[in-house]
Each structure stands twice: as structure tokens, then as C-alpha cells.
TrEMBL record:
Organism: Zizania palustris
Protein name: Uncharacterized protein
Ranges for region Disordered: 1-22
GO terms under biological process: protein insertion into mitochondrial inner membrane
Membrane topology, as annotated: Multi-pass membrane protein
Species classification: Eukaryota, Viridiplantae, Streptophyta, Embryophyta, Tracheophyta
Keywords: Membrane, Mitochondrion, Mitochondrion inner membrane, Transmembrane, Transmembrane helix
GO cellular component: TIM22 mitochondrial import inner membrane insertion complex
Compositional bias annotation for Low complexity: 7-19
An annotated Gene Ontology molecular function: mitochondrion targeting sequence binding
Compartmental location: Mitochondrion inner membrane
Similarity field: Belongs to the Tim17/Tim22/Tim23 family.
Record Pfam families: Tim17
Domain of life, source organism: Eukaryota
Length: 158
């Protein structure tokens, strides 16, 4: 039976004894709390809501950043206070708009990916690609419906 420790001859012959021995750690079974946490996270509704909330948060941050970069056309005619108020309002509008958009994108993408993954019983890049197509299609349909309703409303008012 071979000893788990390298022999002195092998160590002196050209190798570092520390690099040749690797400690094998025993397999650790998950605790009941970890199993419950995994079961909760594997729920498509929970995963989708969390993704929507995180997408909304990212949208707020991006809206704040890009809203601050918007410059009014008439900056020469505005006082410093007016520019600050304008920029703050612009940041708020952009934050709300981006938060809604990113929340919807995150929710749709995560829900689609989770449902596809459960249906296929595989975890691979195909799920992600199909979920991206579903998300893009859903947002395109939503945008087309919105513009059709808007165009119909304007047509009726004329």
C-alpha cells in the first residue's frame, strides 16, 4: 500500500513536497437551511421578482448618471439654481423611466429563462439565447401596441 506522503527520494529528486501533496477534504452535506434557500431560489416567481427589483435598481442608477449628463439647450439663459433644478428633475425623470424599463426587462428575461430551463431540464447557453429572443419580442410587441394605441388616439382626436 502506498504512503500518502512522498518519499524523501522523490522530494529530493526534483520536486517540492508541498506541491505534490494535496489535501483531500471530505464532502460536506448541505444544511436544512441551505436546502430551503436553494428551493426558494429555484422558484421561477421568486427569481423573476428579484431580477425585476435588481433591474429597477440598476435603471435608477443609470438614470441618475445619464440624467446628470443631459444639458439644457438654453444653459446660457439659466441661472445656476435653475440649472440645478432642471438637472435634478431630468435625473428623476430618467431614473423613473430607466427603472421601469430595466425592471420589465429583468423580469421577462428571468422568467423566460427559468421556464425554458425547467422545460428543457438543462442548464446551458441555449436557454439564455431563447430567453433573450423572448424578451426582445415581448418588448417589441409592447412597444408596437403602445405606438398603435397612441396613433389611434391621435387619429380619433383629429
Amino acid at each position: 500500500m502506498a504512503s500518502p506522503e512522498p518519499s524523501a527520494a522523490a522530494a529530493g529528486a526534483g520536486g517540492d513536497s508541498a506541491s505534490q501533496t494535496t489535501a483531500v477534504e471530505p464532502i460536506r452535506m448541505p444544511t436544512p437551511e441551505e436546502i430551503k434557500g436553494q428551493d426558494i431560489w429555484n422558484n421561477c416567481a421568486v427569481r423573476s421578482v428579484v431580477s425585476g427589483v435588481m433591474g429597477g435598481g440598476l435603471g435608477v442608477l443609470m438614470g441618475l448618471f445619464f440624467g446628470a449628463l443631459d444639458n439644457p439647450i438654453t444653459t446660457e439663459e439659466m441661472t445656476a439654481r435653475q440649472q440645478i433644478v432642471y438637472t435634478a428633475k431630468q435625473m428623476g425623470r430618467r431614473s423613473l423611466s430607466n427603472a421601469k424599463t430595466f425592471a420589465v426587462m429583468g423580469l421577462i428575461f428571468s422568467a423566460a429563462e427559468c421556464v425554458i430551463e425547467k422545460a428543457r431540464a438543462k442548464h446551458d447557453t441555449t436557454n439564455t439565447a431563447v430567453a433573450g429572443c423572448v424578451t426582445g419580442g415581448a418588448l417589441a410587441v409592447k412597444g408596437k401596441l403602445f405606438f398603435n394605441i397612441l396613433a389611434h388616439k391621435n387619429y380619433v382626436e383629429l
